[in-house]
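Protocol step 4 of 6.
Sequence for Uracil phosphoribosyltransferase (Paeniglutamicibacter kerguelensis) entered exactly as in the expression construct, tag removed. Do not edit the line below.
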Amino acid sequence: MRVQVIDHPLVAHKVSVLRDKNTPSPVFRQLTDELVTLLAYEATREVKTVQVQIETPVAVTTGIAFAKPTPLVVPILRAGLGMLEGMTRLVPTAEVGFLGMARNEETLDIITYAERLPSDLTGRQVFVLDPMLATGGTLIESIKFLFDRGAEDVTCICLIAAPEGLARLEEAYGDNDKVHLVLASLDEKLDEKSYIVPGLGDAGDRLYGVAH
Ligand SMILES: O=P(O)(O)OC[C@H]1O[C@H](OP(=O)(O)OP(=O)(O)O)[C@H](O)[C@@H]1O
Ligand SMILES: O=c1cc[nH]c(=O)[nH]1
Ligand SMILES: [Mg+2]
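Step 5 output, structure tokens:
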């Protein structure tokens, strides 16, 4: 597994504003969208392409197009939805599949309450979007789901991760070079409720309002 923490002042600045508890939902949504576009720049570096011939007003030259089958983008509902538009803006030919997962805040078990994905992902490059990697339970479950369907490789774009979750992911996929993780920040730790410290609170609630 490859892990990249994007060290860039534009990323760090946007994450700082996201963390601020006084940042209202509309600004939080806008920053989430902008951050995805910055992280996607690295996350898509190995997206498969083919050469195509194009004609400029001056000459014939060679360009590239995304290869087929097209990449699949999978936002993990709810919070991952806030990252979807930023990603599809950059990869407009991508298809989108949905996984709805929620962490039971008492037991930390993962409940999969929605799934709308192609049944066969053979040969597909998949980009998973979820702002938070806390205990790692959600991401491990999602990656397993996608490989079980035949995905060729899985790149996860997360905004903030905890070292505990990253360690669990390493345990599960450490020697799998088909898993790639791109982060804006690797934080200090989890608190007693398994929230990321300093983190930004509940990403889904901050994007869309308190669920319960
Ligand atoms: O690494 P984990 O410990 O599994 O936690 C991370 C998950 O928690 C959040 O979702 P949540 O369950 O709050 O659902 P929501 O997006 O609907 O708020 C977050 O968006 C991740 O999916
Ligand atoms: O800090 C956390 C942990 C899990 N889910 C979130 O949204 N935030
Ligand atoms: Mg939540």
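Step 6, annotate. The chain has a mean pLDDT of 97.
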